[in-house]
TrEMBL record:
<dbReference type="InterPro" id="IPR045669">
    <property type="entry name" value="FHIP_C"/>
</dbReference>
<feature type="region of interest" description="Disordered">
    <location>
        <begin position="142"/>
        <end position="172"/>
    </location>
</feature>
<dbReference type="InterPro" id="IPR019384">
    <property type="entry name" value="FHIP"/>
</dbReference>
<comment type="similarity">
    <text>Belongs to the FHIP family.</text>
</comment>
<protein>
    <submittedName>
        <fullName>FHF complex subunit HOOK interacting protein 2A</fullName>
    </submittedName>
</protein>
<dbReference type="Pfam" id="PF10257">
    <property type="entry name" value="RAI16-like"/>
</dbReference>
<feature type="domain" description="FHF complex subunit HOOK-interacting protein C-terminal">
    <location>
        <begin position="574"/>
        <end position="666"/>
    </location>
</feature>
<feature type="compositionally biased region" description="Basic and acidic residues">
    <location>
        <begin position="152"/>
        <end position="169"/>
    </location>
</feature>
<dbReference type="Pfam" id="PF19311">
    <property type="entry name" value="KELAA"/>
</dbReference>
<dbReference type="InterPro" id="IPR045668">
    <property type="entry name" value="FHIP_KELAA_motif"/>
</dbReference>
<dbReference type="Pfam" id="PF19314">
    <property type="entry name" value="DUF5917"/>
</dbReference>
Length: 707
């Protein structure tokens, strides 16, 4: 029959329907085949019918689905797919569903036949009839028993209320889904295998059922079919998919189930080092894995499904993407992850933060990233005050974890924030830092007078402190100003277009301010090869270029906001995030080496952002701070002052410092424990951090000064 139809179409002009096709359509041959397939009579008939439908839709070029005698039996056949998992016809079922999805992708308007067809038929019988709950699914406006039209907004609220009532009666569906470490895919109990059994099945429901197939190939094909459906460009189709199916619920329920199936105790290093996850390649063989650990299969399954949700939202039509991302936020982030992050068990906090860190790294969808950022940080954009830092409890708790009594929790949370800052979302940096620097009220503003202008013309900065007069820099001599070093020769030359005294502090003064912060007796890098300043310059140039690319579309100001337009009278608070980082930085001489590395890493990442206020506040030593305010430079100055006092109490300080540096670099074998190890390691991190800040300041100046 198929061969005859194909031959007939080939012999006729394009778009002309032949007598055989006319007979097929008018005599409802497809309805008859569906009835035989449903009964599977004779045995094996369902498989043959599915194959015939698939080939008919795939090989006939003229549009068949708009015909009522085609799309009606196709819709009925769709309901048979995915009813029972691991059936002999599963392969034919998924091939049939995928060809239907492909046809819908070609002609998106056809989706109306599959999601609203039965509703139209029911409503045509008269609004006075009582329409069952199964029929109400997918309708744009409901008809009540009195004939009144209910708008979509009211319908969605009604549906939510009914769903809530049902949820109270049913056992927790997510808990019914049993997860086995011996099975890669989530298997479900018979009660949960059907998607909302009281409702009509449709294309989405059948595909969602088949995503649970024990056969990984079937599950991946079902996921691909869903990807096609959510990407349909028609707003009506997207609305129907989101409001009239349980796609969002099942995506998030699966996420929650897989997350809850993870072991309570997972080594954070295992979570970090697990290979890159791709949802379409969720294949894992425990016996062949040399780096296997308990819970690895569960982790791969969870992150594979999260990757799928991320990609689905990335490909989806705009309104569908927003709806799905909000569902993930409300049903998974808030409902499942937040209680884990807010707990008091240190082991639980560490595991959940490590999982969150991996999730942050893995998100690529802009819409899902936005919802995740709002979940973590809140939506507030006004300046923070000390009294309202607990306004968003999760944000407050996460920032507090950066200064946790457990070093492991502190390091993991700081790493999470470090990766979050590198995400292409403007709200992250604004919420954490920029909103508190907007008014520049960290500065003490003195209206310029003639005397200041004369000083500036003579090459000095008004109100700046000369390093040679500063008691902390009495060791500064012409030999160690580093002005003749190779790296500084790249400084842009003085030209009419780029004069030195353009209102910016001269870059060589800034660079030297940072390089000379650590006194000579506390420096050890010049004794070891390969630890020079040039390596930081190369890294800073590459990283700054990457950050500029991220921030390009945010349309930041090129220069600081005019002080005349700023509210300098407002009390300044650096914000909870910078407060914790500065507090940590102030204790650099008394903290473990790994904590110091992570704190300085986050601060250097912040310094790289090409925003003038961030540059001024974090990288300009000569800014006139208002009373009671502190900057990154002032925090380091206090640390150095403390260090100079403590150096005097430690005999053989410089040789010990050099030995510790060589051990850290692996140039010296581990030997006897050295006294004051934490202090010595802190001094080394401090020296390297100052070199890194100098390099960042130089690169940012050089880039902004280049025509």
């Amino acid at each position: 029959m198929l061969d005859i139809l194909v031959q007939e179409e080939n012999e006729r002009e394009s778009g002309e329907t032949g007598p055989c096709m006319e007979y097929l359509l008018h005599h409802k041959i497809l309805e008859t085949l569906y009835t035989l397939g449903k009964a599977d009579c004779p045995p094996g008939m369902k498989q043959q019918v599915l194959a015939f439908y698939t080939k008919l839709l795939g090989r006939i070029r003229q549009p068949l689905l708009p015909h009522i005698n085609v799309h009606r039996p196709v819709q009925k056949l769709i309901r048979l797919c995915g009813e029972v998992l691991a059936t002999p016809t599963e392969n034919e079922e998924i091939q049939f569903l995928c060809i239907v999805c492909a046809k819908l992708k070609q002609d998106p308007y056809l989706v109306n036949f599959f999601l609203e067809n039965k509703i139209k038929a029911m409503t045509s019988r008269g609004s006075a009839s009582v329409i069952s709950e199964e029929v109400l699914k997918g309708q744009d406006s409901l008809i009540t028993g009195r004939g009144q039209s209910v708008q979509p907004e009211e319908r969605s609220a009604t549906a939510r209320a009914e769903h809530t009532e049902k949820a109270d009666d049913l056992p927790q569906q997510a808990d019914d889904l049993s997860f086995s470490l011996d099975e890669l895919n989530v298997t479900s109990s018979p009660e949960a295998s059907a998607v909302r059994p009281n409702h009509d099945y449709n294309l989405v429901n059948s595909l969602l059922n088949l995503t649970r197939s024990p056969d990984g190939r079937i599950a991946v094909k079902a996921c691909e079919g869903l990807m096609l459906l959510v990407s349909l460009p028609e707003p009506a189709a997207a609305r129907c998919l989101m409001e009239s199916t349980c796609l969002c619920e099942l995506l998030t329920d699966r996420l929650a189930t897989l997350y809850k199936a993870l072991p309570q105790l997972v080594d954070p290093l295992d979570i970090e080092t697990i290979e890159a996850i791709n949802w379409g390649l969720d294949s894992y063989n425990y016996k062949e894995d040399a780096s296997a650990f308990p819970g690895k299969r569960a982790l791969i399954s969870f992150f594979s499904w999260f990757d799928y949700c991320d990609q689905l939202i990335k490909e989806a039509q705009k309104t569908a993407a927003v709806t799905m991302a909000r569902a993930v936020r409300e049903r998974f982030f808030v409902g499942v992850i937040e209680p884990q992050l807010m707990q008091t068990s240190e082991i639980g906090i560490l595991t959940s933060t490590a999982l969150l860190h991996r999730i942050v790294r893995q998100v690529t969808s802009d819409v899902l990233l936005q919802e995740m950022v709002y979940f973590l940080l809140g939506e507030h954009r006004e300046p923070e005050t000390l009294t309202d830092i607990n306004r968003h409890p999760l944000r407050h708790r996460l920032i507090e974890h950066c200064d946790h009594i457990s070093d492991e929790i502190s390091i993991m949370t700081l790493r999470m924030f470090e990766h979050l800052l590198q995400k292409p979302n403007e709200h992250i940096l604004y919420n954490l830092v920029l909103r508190n620097l907007e008014e520049r009220n960290y500065m003490e503003y003195k209206p310029p007078c003639q005397e200041d202008k004369d000083i500036v013309e003579n090459g000095q900065i008004a109100g700046a402190v000369d390093l040679e007069e500063d008691p902390l820099f009495t060791d500064l001599s012409p030999d160690n100003t580093l002005l003749n070093q190779e790296w500084l020769s790249a400084s842009p030359p003085i030209s009419p277009e780029h004069p030195r005294n353009d209102g910016k502090t001269e870059v060589h003064k800034i660079v030297n301010s940072f390089l000379c912060l650590v006194p000579d007796e506390a420096k050890s890098s010049y004794h070891v090869e390969g630890t020079g300043y040039d390596t930081y310059l190369r890294d800073a140039h590459r990283q700054f270029r990457d950050y500029c690319a991220i921030c390009l579309r945010w349309e930041w100001l090129g220069s600081p906001r005019s002080l005349e337009k700023c509210n300098l009278e407002a009390p300044f608070f650096e914000g909870h995030f910078l407060k914790v980082l500065f507090d940590r930085m102030g204790r650099i001489l008394d903290q473990p080496y790994d904590v110091n590395l992570q704190v300085t890493s986050v601060l250097s990442k912040l310094s790289l952002f090409p925003h003038p206020h961030i540059h001024e506040y974090l990288l300009d030593p000569y800014v006139n701070l208002a009373s009671g305010c502190r900057s990154l430079f002032s925090v380091i100055v206090r640390v150095v002052g403390d260090l100079m006092v403590r150096i005097q109490r430690i005999p053989d300080f410089t040789p010990k410092l050099l030995l510790v540096r060589k051990r850290l670099l692996g140039l010296e074998p581990e030997g006897p424990i050295i006294d004051h190890m934490t202090l010595l390691e802190g001094v080394i991190v401090l020296e390297e951090f100052c070199k890194e800040l100098a390099a960042i300041a130089f690169v940012k100046y050089h880039t902004s000064s280049t025509p």
